[in-house]
Amino acid sequence: MYISHSSLSLLPSAPAIQIRFILIQNRAGKTRLAKWYMQFDDDEKQKLIEEVHAVVTVRDAKHTNFVEVRQKDLLDAMSFRNFKIIYRRYAGLYFCICVDVTDNNLAYLEGIHNFVEVLNEYFHNVCELDLVFNFYKVYTVVDEMFLAGEIRETSQTKVLKQLLMLQSLE
Amino acid sequence: MPAPIRLRELIRTIRTARTQAEEREMIQKECAAIRSSFREEDNTYRCRNVAKLLYMHMLGYPAHFGQLECLKLIASQKFTDKRIGYLGAMLLLDERQDVHLLMTNCIKNDLNHSTQYVQGLALCTLGCMGSSEMCRDLAGEVEKLLKTSNSYLRKKAALCAVHVIRKVPELMEMFLPATKNLLSEKNHGVLHTSVVLLTEMCERSPDMLLHFRKVWILVPQLVRILKNLIMSGYSPEHDVSGISDPFLQVRILRLLRILGRSDDDSSEAMNDILAQVATNTETSKNVGNAILYETVLTIMDIKSESGLRVLAINILGRFLLNNDKNIRYVALTSLLKTVQTDHNAVQRHRSTIVDCLKDLDVSIKRRAMELSFALVNGNNIRGMMKELLYFLDSCDPEFKADCASGVFLAAEKYAPSKRWHIDTIMRVLTTAGSYVRDDSVPNLIQLITNSVEMHAYTVQRLYKALLDDISQQPLVQVSSWCIGEYGDLLVSGQCEEEEPIQVTEDEVLDVLEGLLVSNLSTPVTRGYSLTAIMKLSTRFSSVNRIKKVVSIYGSSIDVELQQRAVEYNALFKKYDHMRPALLERMPIMEKTASNGPTEIVQTNGETEPSVPDTKHPPLVTQPANQANDLLDLLGGNDVVPVIQTTLPTKPASAGGELLDLLGDLSLSSGPAPAPSVPISQPPFLLDGLSSQPLFNDISAAIPPMTAYSKNGLKIEFTFERANPNPNIAVITIHATNTTEADMTEFVFQAAVPKTFQLQLLSPSSNMVPALNQGSVTQVIRVLNPQKQQLRMRVKLTYTHKGSPVQDLAEVNNFPPQSWQ
């Protein structure tokens, strides 16, 4: 029942990773943040972004927060890439995390919420414009909480303390 | 040159652009400015320029000319420069550019920097996009940082190590000593990341896994940590809705799962804690459910005891009742995976699963449908089918095909009566007729021919359905075939099951001719109806009308129809004497092997009360009827006769005792087995089998084995492979007796698990002479279509020195070549 990660990777040569990418998009499809934990070509990245957008914006409250996507591999016509998007919508923004199909959906859902709460605290009632104008700071928050495709720090107080320290260095 | 504009300004300006073209223009202008600024090697504003460049990159514009600038920023001493530089490196650079190797030296220096934040930045970048060469070079530094006392850095170093291991698995051993100390940390963040590191190591290398299990004895340590987490009170830092550090709990559970998989000792050690987590966690919020879900996955994967498994399935059942559809989805997915192994436990939640068929979310509906089909069995078939048919009516087209084939399969396996079966199939055809698979038409036709007493009822219902709707091709095809066959029954109004309707011959012919001319009919359907009309010429009296129709189509444009019509015309004209013979009633068809052993039609329950044995699904394997066995998958599917044994040496009660034997055998878990029914074969097949020893000496001869040796009786098995079918293993037993007294009335019986079929041929004699003067031989043929490990339970009875002896034994030491 538990499939080892190495048998289900997005690209044939890449090692198996938990989180493949984190994406924040608005309803129109504009990317507010894109953090990639796996190697992709630029056009592959673009394709993935478009696909995620297409899949996630048509879903509403009566759907689950998980989507499994099968995408034809650009390089190898016979293989499909199987991955799962766990997303959550906050106002006009979709926070999407792409993980392996065998992962625990509910835990990542909590992870997204944790991340958004930190953003909220850091930017004092965050809104989309905050993310636009301070995009480099958002990346810092991401890097404080996630690293190498894994959740790194889950305590909101600790993360906020670090962020404030970093900010004082500027 | 004026100072380049600030980042904020740029963003604001770009946002004011109203069209894509305007935006592109602004960006191009700014890019040009940035490029000239880069050329000037301006240190003060480089940071700002790169930041702007990154913003434009995020919007989707090319920014690769900034890569080298990022490197320069990284090399600078200012923290802000470094920060933007590393961010730029992570966004713009990746493994495939050669430029990234230039970063290695910078990162190395930064990893040894005095400020922890710089070190942190470097670790972060390495962890996100370090290539294998970089990782190899810098692994030593990372390992050093794993041992520092600064917990901020240790966390980052641990995850960076994870990345290094992923890229360069050979470096795993290097991190081993440092990792050991990580688990004794109090800091949750460090604990979390170290669990992640351990997980990664275990997944990558089975040796490491063993090492952790045995040498470090990791499991009790993890259990202790988990226990502390649950028992400790409220800790504000890591608390999420009242549960302390759920993320850490989830990761520990996952690591426990990997450690406990296929290892009994570890699994036992974690039984208690898993039960504790499962019962104590709060389920009101998503957090609790996330932990419970991970616990369930762990329980299912390790070698847990059955009580725990039942607990896990009950948790999943509770999930199904939850309002949150996410949780229902997750539960359905897991139940689908476990339904094969823990079938009974899942059955208890059947009604909830069936309710999920009515859910709004498509993915939940699909999983509920698959699960429902997996849960159908002989007992609940009526109720389940009602729900599933209702679902078929109302579901989306994408489901209809799968649902229809599922319904057919289930109906075939478990139909309680023929009438029910036919009704169900008709219902499917009328509601989802255009979505059924092509081969269901011949299957259905065959089913109808086989249920002889239902012909009148069937043809009547089909006729009525045809009157309503002629658009669904499979339905139309089956109906026209039946009307052609049984039209006489229709017209004579002989139906017992239902109110007979009054139909005249002309009305029937009207309908069939209507099919021929209708636009909705495909060429195949037209073929069916023309043949049906022709068949009616021997059953009806109005032959002239039929002759007219047939001759009209002799000049049809469709070649197939034309050919048929011309041939039928010829039948009327020149071969009229042959017509009745050619067009008489079809004989009962034999079903050829369609999809394997599970497709054999069986009717049990209401119409065949005389065959009690077939009612028990697990007992249907062959030892109870050693002859009459289907070792090839051909054979008729007639109504099941009373089970015969043809071997003269078997007393009648032996069949009953063997049924007990089978009940005790621990049966390997396979897919839901269809009770495959033994059928009396035509005699010539059996003669063919027993007269020729079906030897096939394969180059690797299978070594003989001693299956039983006790009290002087020794039984040896020798193997051959049956020639036509490599799944059949032919075993010859040789029984010898080393005592001084003969063993008389010697009877050898054998039973095998569900997935096998067994046939015992007659033994050479029933007396084993004393002192090895001779032996009794008997041939066993075992069909092993799934190539599972062969196991057998044998029962021996004989009379020795006047007293009867009876013994049971299990034979497990079959050589692998015999069943592979």
Automatic annotation (TrEMBL), chain A:
Its main location: membrane. CDD domains: AP2_sigma (cd14833). One of its GO terms (molecular function) is clathrin adaptor activity. Keywords: Cell membrane, Coated pit, Endocytosis, Membrane, Protein transport, Transport. It is found in: Cell membrane; Membrane, Coated pit. It is a peripheral membrane protein. Signal peptide: none annotated. Adaptor protein complex 2 (AP-2) is a heterotetramer composed of two large adaptins (alpha-type subunit AP2A1 or AP2A2 and beta-type subunit AP2B1), a medium adaptin (mu-type subunit AP2M1) and a small adaptin (sigma-type subunit AP2S1). Interacts with CCDC32; the interaction is direct and mediates association of CCDC32 with adaptor protein complex 2 (AP-2). Belongs to the adaptor complexes small subunit family. This is AP complex subunit sigma. It comes from Oncorhynchus kisutch. The gene is AP2S1.
TrEMBL record, chain B:
It comes from the Eukaryota. PROSITE patterns: GAE. GO terms for cellular component: AP-1 adaptor complex. It is a peripheral membrane protein. GO terms for biological process: intracellular protein transport; vesicle-mediated transport. Keywords: Cytoplasmic vesicle, Golgi apparatus, Membrane, Protein transport, Transport. Residues 700-815 form the GAE domain. It is found in: Cytoplasmic vesicle membrane; Endomembrane system; Golgi apparatus. InterPro entries: Adaptor_Complx_Large_Subunit, AP1_complex_gsu, ARM-like, ARM-type_fold, Clathrin/coatomer_adapt-like_N, Clathrin_a/b/g-adaptin_app_Ig, Clathrin_app_Ig-like_sf, GAE_dom. SUPFAM superfamilies: ARM repeat, Clathrin adaptor appendage domain. PANTHER family: ADAPTIN, ALPHA/GAMMA/EPSILON. Belongs to the adaptor complexes large subunit family. This is AP-1 complex subunit gamma.
